[in-house]
Design a protein that fits this description.
257 residues; alpha/beta; globular; binds fe (ii) ion
Length: 257
């Protein structure tokens, strides 16, 4: 069994430092790895990244992240990535990593993803160059995720994105903004490999649970959705691998509701 802790959209700045840390100190007792689903910062500044590093660095378990749209806001992505990497936080964008954990080899493929919408209500590669560029960005992002997933040799495979791969986990958000919250292409990429679990953030007002057309469990781990420091997923258990428990800021195991 592999125990995965996950949270997204922590939007850390100076005023948030210390808020997650007490629960994070207890994380190694209940999880083997922490996955962050992007929007680590508010505006993507190097200074905010240093706050993220202080809060999420040096946990005693591997920490793997993708960036979110907020982490791009100030055009300081290279500096943000450098600060995170120096804190031991692995940043994925269109690539994968295999972690040798006590319960087996966990493969994590990560990409920020992009918008575009979902089947029947999506942007199409037609018309103005700006629209074509928008759709091309979504396609390229999903293609990179699919290639990364299919390229990993591991026991269990997890997809990590910021944008949503299915509409179910957006339930609660205004329908009008669904095309800016995710794309069906990410779901297709996830289904192109034997993915065990897909984690995303971005949809603060969305819902926790969804499933891809191919049957892969999807979980929206945006902090405003899970309302706890992180959720913990046990993979490799029978019969229901991803249905586990959440963990509260106090570190208390609680039933997944
Ligand atoms: Fe966010
Ligand atoms: Fe976001």
């Amino acid at each position: 069994m592999i125990r995965i802790a996950a949270v997204g959209d922590v939007h850390v700045d100076e005023d948030v430092v210390g808020r997650f840390r007490p629960a994070l100190e207890e994380l190694p007792d209940c999880a083997d790895v922490l996955l962050l689903a992007g929007d680590l910062t508010r505006h993507g500044t190097e200074a905010e990244a240093r706050c993220v590093a202080r809060e999420f660095g040096g946990l005693g378990v591997p920490v793997v992240t993708v960036l979110g749209n907020h982490d791009h806001q100030c055009d300081e992505v290279p500096q943000v990535v450098k600060v995170l990497q120096e804190a031991g936080i692995r940043v994925l964008e269109g690539e994968g990593i295999v972690l040798d954990l006590p319960g087996g080899r966990l493969g994590v493929a990560g990409v920020k993803g992009f918008g575009g919408g979902f089947a029947g209500r999506c942007a199409s590669d037609f018309g103005e160059p700006e629209m074509k560029a928008f759709v091309r960005t979504a396609n390229e992002s999903a293609d990179a995720l699919g290639a990364a997933l299919r390229g990993l040799d591991c026991d269990l495979l997890v997809a990590l994105t910021h944008y949503a791969p299915v509409p179910e986990t957006l339930a609660g958000e205004p329908l009008e903004i669904y095309p800016f919250l995710g794309s069906y292409q990410l779901g297709q990429a996830i289904d192109s490999a034997p993915t065990a679990l897909a984690l995303h953030g971005h949809a603060h007002a969305g819902s926790e649970r969804g499933i891809t057309p191919g049957g892969v469990r999807v979980r929206n781990v945006a902090h405003p959705v899970i309302k706890q420091a992180y959720s913990v997923f046990h993979l490799g258990e029978q019969p229901d691998p991803a249905e586990v428990s959440g963990i509260g800021p106090s570190g208390t195991q609680q039933p997944w509701s």
